[in-house]
Amino acid sequence: MAPDEKQEKKDERQEWREARREWRRRNRGRSLIPAGALIGLGIGLLYGQPGAGVILGLGLGFLGSAFVPPAGPAGAPPGAPMVHGPRWMAVLTGIVLILVGLWIALGLLLPWTTIIAVLLILIGLGFIARAFGRMQ
Fold this sequence. Notes:
The protein is mainly α. Helix content is 73%, strand content 0%.
């Protein structure tokens, strides 16, 4: 292999590593939601409440991901976030899911079940509306 070819391959590997590092930086915190769901499922299975465990884990995952600082736009200096503070939609969703999970785990059948279901539907629609708003 010629020295030029070796240098090209080395440069390609370095570019790939940099791209991967950037992708990881920009996507940090996104794995907290499924991680919370899986941990919650495991704990819920241990206590005979898998559904409540998943919901509690999802809520904790949403809360955790809301407080992980987002990455700035490409080319911005490190540490320059796009959004300041927590993302309130994720915080609200996390709190509602934690409350629902606790109600299920504790066996509380309150008339609030319908209200909570409607709240969850509205939060889901809010996520969809926000996603479509960003597309423009």
